[in-house]
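To the team - fe (ii) ion complex, inputs and output below.
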Amino acid sequence: MNILGLTAPISSNTAACIIRDGELVALVEEERFIGLKHAPKMVPKKSIHYCLSSAGITIDEVDYIAIGFDRPLKSSFKNLMQNIREANLSRLVRECGAYGEYFLSMQRQIDFLASLSSKGNIHKKLVYIDHHRSHAASAVRTPGYDDAVVITLDGVGEDNAGMIGYFEGNKIHKLRSIPINQSFGWLYGEVTALCGFKSHSHEGKTMGLAAFGKPDLALFDGIAELTDDGYRLVHGFADTLRRRFRTRSKDEEITEYHKNIAATVQFFLEEAVLRVAQSVSRQCKSRNLALAGGVALNCDMNYRLITSGCFDSIFVQPAANDAGTALGAALEVAAIKCKVTSNFKLSHAYYGPSYHNDEIEALLIESKIPYRKLSELREVAKLINDGKIVGWFTGRMEFGPRALGGRSILANPAIRGMNEKINLECKHRENWRPFAPSVLSEHCDEYFENYHFSPFMLMTFKVKDDKREMLQSAIHVDGTARVQEVTLEANPRYYELINEFYKLSGVAAVLDTSLNDREKPICLTPRDAIQTFYTTGLDVMVLEDFILEK
Ligand SMILES: [Fe+2]
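Output:
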């Protein structure tokens, strides 16, 4: 049973995946192929090609095509499509607003799928899954939970901004939706814009900035308020925010003014989501919490939830944003249509393309780039220990916005100022942007307070006082770190590298950030990696078994 999972071409991040007999075979985001961050509102053509070829099948051997968005105006979809073909398209877009856009782009996606088929029976295979149900499925059908509270939070998906429910008996039970006028994604996006960043893209910067400010809920009087079981956003909150606060221009220095607004929205988000989660957990009696939607990428919020004591376990899959709806929709179809009671458990994120040594060497020879064969991983560990900034390209590419040791930039976290050096020389971004550590599994409890399993770098923890110095360049100003726990099973080569570094330095962690330059998606190919190597301040590039040095 083959299921192709797709985002809708109205999603903020587009992606495709393929599931065979309940097991994930491939998952990749379109941005990696086309070089445009998030690849919003696109038909994920290259991702579809990759997924089909990695499963070794054609579209005609796909049983279902699952789409992570509800069918637009179900009853009249067919007629409307007919009308769109015959009528003035741009007028229809105007009249139908966003949904008109969706009709047109969805038709483009269907036409593309049909063009891959020799049988022309694409329509029969299409299954549309509600957007927030898709987000929810991506969160509850991947950690191996028997039951869980599930909360999805984004800007907007269909006509809602979230869903609250629970997972039991292999089914997702919806308790209620979060309406658009109560959208956390929207609130956070507005504040992100006020801080002079790009909303629906740079929310991570706002979260980073929040650590430098002081929260003050009085700033949000008449905008947002906390209630016993959650929160309330006041009607017209976006306009009030814009009226009350001054928007920082891009080149303006960031002062306490904007730091405090960022700190306030972060504090509000954490407090409000915690209250919502507490109230659902009392109702459902599950000790597991699964989160999805773009807001679930907020790792400080996730930390607040895990340390609340309400839950024993929290799970966020790496592509909590819209890209994950491709996965969720496919898993939901597997469960409903195919009655798959899968034991599938997402234990790593390496479901993208990989490249053989032969093709990498051919590229290096063709490009007349000096290189040598890597003799042992210890050699790379030594370079990191000596203070070199190392590009690390190995195995299948990871999915989701965090690099997890497939396409990474690595450095020694114990070196003072290493964070600023990488921001300045390699990432070409603000010097206050924090980095994160990849930590050997066995040492996580020893390094972090109240530690819980965090394999995908989506949770922050307080670094223990005696470990702060050794992790100093991979921790945030407030003494927390966004941890990736690395196990031998999930990524043997990465584990081995960190272990070699540990033997040399006594530090069981490396600083890990994504292999890309400012505003570019994470590198996909060896060619992308080589380009990044020569256009940034990277000292070393490891491409599978080859090493390049400047
Ligand atoms: Fe979404």
